[in-house]
Every structure is written in C-alpha cells, then in structure tokens.
UniProtKB/TrEMBL annotation:
This is TIGR03619 family F420-dependent LLM class oxidoreductase. Residues 16-264 form the Luciferase-like domain. It is an enzyme of class 1 (oxidoreductase). GO terms for molecular function: oxidoreductase activity. Keywords: Flavoprotein, FMN, Monooxygenase, Oxidoreductase. Signal peptide: none annotated. SUPFAM superfamilies: Bacterial luciferase-like (SSF51679). The keyword Coiled coil does not apply. It comes from Sphaerisporangium corydalis. InterPro entries: Lucif-like_OxRdtase_Rv2161c (IPR019921), Luciferase-like_dom (IPR011251), Luciferase-like_sf (IPR036661), SsuD_RutA_monooxygenase (IPR050172). Its EC number is 1.-.-.-.
Amino acid sequence: MVRIGFTLPQMGDLAHYPREVARFAQQAEQLGADSLWVGDRLLAPVDPTVGYGGGDTIPAAFHALLDPFVLLSIAAVSTERVRLGTNVLNAPWYPPALLARSLTSIDLVSGGRLVLGFGVGWSPEEYVAAGVPMAERGARLDECLDALDAYWSQNPVEYQGRHWTIPATYADLKPVQRPRPPIYLGGYSPAAMGRAARRADGWLPVVRPGYGTPWEFNAAQINGPVDQLRSRAVEHGRDPAQLDLILRVYPTEEATVDQIVDALTGAERHTPVEHAFVDLMEVGQDIDHALELVGHILTRARNA
C-alpha cells in the first residue's frame, strides 16, 4: 500500500494559524499520515520575472509563508512516527555549514525521521533576496551535497569548494540516520535529472490534480521521466533500483477529493511509486478543514 503524507500548514490560508501547527501534526499522525512536509519559498514577487510552474503569475498562497526549519522542529517534537520531509529546500541559498547544523539538529530531535528533498528553485527575485547568483545555482547545489557528505562523515570536517568553504572544525554531532538522511532531488531539466541519476537516493516527480478539465491521472507523466532517470542512472554505473520515488501531488483550488484520491491510487497501481504526499496549500481553508481533508483522503485512498 502506498504511504501517504501531507504538507504542514506553512503557506497560504493555513499559514495564518502558526500556533496550530503542532495540533495539525499530531492529529494528522493519529489519522494515519505517513509523512509531513515543508516547502521553501522566500518571496511572492509583485512583478515576477518568472511565474510559478511556467506561468506568468505567483499563487496567492505564496503571499503568506512560514519558515520550513521552524515547522520541521515543531513537527519533530509533536509527533513520534511520521517521516518529516523537505519539498524542497533550495539548497543553493544556504551555506552548507548552516544547513548541516539545522538538518542534523532536526534529525536528532526527531529520532532519525528526516527525509531531505533538495532543489534549485526558479525565481530570480528569490535569488536576489538570498544574495546568491542564480546562474551558479546548479554548481552551488553540487558543492552543497559534497559539503554535507563531508560534514556528516568526517570529524574533524573540512571542505573547500569554489563557492562554499568549511574551515576545519570539530563536528561531534551526526544525524541519527547513517551515513546520513536520504536525499531526494526534484526537477525535470536535463541537468536536474542527470544530478538525481548520478548522486541522489531518489527523485520527486509531480502530478497536479485539477489542472485541466477534465482531469484524470496519467501514469505516463510519471513512468516516462522515471524510465529516463533510470537509464541515466545506468549510464553512471548505478543500479536504477537504488533510486526511490516520492510523488508530489499538488492539487489546484479546483481539485476534488476524488481527483486527489485518483492520483494516489493511480500512482500505486500503475507506477513504481510507493510513497506520495498531498500539498494542502491551495485546498486547505483552515486547520480543521485541512484535517478533515486528511481524514477523507486517507480513508478513501486506503479503501479504494
């Protein structure tokens, strides 16, 4: 049976209830959720150079944003079983030493339940605000992955790259998960998929229930890119079976529960996906409504 997770109340209408994050996490776990997730947005540009999802605009949901590390920390101490994932952290924004400190702490506090999703983002305005050249994002992600591997495998640790440096330092604390938390990469560009095939533990495909009328699940949207990814993994001398998949289900405001459940059950039956999560930022109105959706989706998907 496919494992099913949900995003924490981080963006959009749900972000206006920060003191309810712990209750949401606890009750979602009690309802049977397998994982809880955060995203990583920084801005909602008034005049975006590049819109969301290849469009021209930015969703209203991005007008209200809570910090991903804060929410992961709340969920880590409020739950006992669920995996805690990042979808995705824009790793090029962060010096690897700071990222390693935060992620090591969260994995330790959670007892080893952290799942890392990394990406490079798409918004030029966010890169301006982060003070990082967007043209360097791929190279910085590669160096970040190298530096994190060093930080989590060595003591003392030292890293010297073109963009990031960690002077020799003692690092006694390591993640509970050894050799490190699993790392998944997102993105469909040739560079992104090549990076995932070469060095990730898994990849993060996407479906969007409600996008287009009528909407119906299309397994080829997952299986086609996955076949490409596995072929590229073979080219890099890797066993393609080592690459795990976690499906990101991004419902639009128009999506129905039936369409969301169809995406989950369709992925389970017709693709290699064994773990998926539903993003609630465009469909959750408040915490109680979001929890109601969680219950309905879990019940219907598991009884389908």
